[in-house]
Every structure is written in structure tokens, then in C-alpha cells.
Amino acid sequence: MKYPNVISVEPTENYFIIIKYETGEIKTFDVKPYISGNWFGELKDPDIFRSVRPCGNTIEWINGQDIAPHELYEMSVAM
Predict the structure, then answer these.
(1) What is the pLDDT of residue 1?
(2) N or C: which end of the chain has fewer CB within 10 A?
(3) Which of 34, 28, 32, 24 has its CA nearest to residue 4?
């Protein structure tokens, strides 16, 4: 399945993000389960967490962390 492109992403409190897709869908995604270990643990830093940006059909952070497109789309919740 081809997942829609992310047109914007907004970090919110408590490690949630709001994702707007090219389809018009708006979803929320809980990043907390991913924030562990050396690599994803960097997202605990509020400045790094807020650096999230769209990257095609997914998102990524300033240091290269990303979420697989299928996880981001299928595990996010419609608003």
C-alpha cells in the first residue's frame, strides 16, 4: 500500500504529534512508546522533539530518527 504524504506535523505536549496528510486526514500519534535507547532516546530532549518535520509519507527529526510510514499511518488516531 502506498501511504499518503505528510504535509505538516506539529509536536504537542506529552510527546504526541498532530499529522496532516495530503488526503485531508488529520491524525494524532503517540511517540512515547518509541522514546528509548540511545537513538530514539534523544527525542526526550524537547528541542529535538520539536524539530520534527514532514518527509514524504512519514516524518523525521533533526538527527535522522523517523517512524516507518505504515506505523505512522496505521497506528495514528483520526481527530
Answers:
(1) 79
(2) N
(3) 24
Number of H helices, E strands in the chain: 3, 6
Q: Give the predicted TM-score (pTM) of the model.
A: 0.92
Give the per-residue pLDDT at 35: 94
Neighbouring C-beta atoms of residue 77, cutoff 10 Å:
9
Q: Which run of H or of E encompasses 8?
A: strand 6-11
Cα separations in angstroms, 26 against 37, 39, 42, 56, 63: 29, 27, 26, 16, 25
DSSP for residue 77? E
Q: How many CB atoms lie within 10 A of CB 72?
A: 22
Identify the architecture of domain 6-78 in CATH.
Answer: 2-Layer Sandwich (3.30)
Report strand pairing: 58-60 vs 53-55: antiparallel
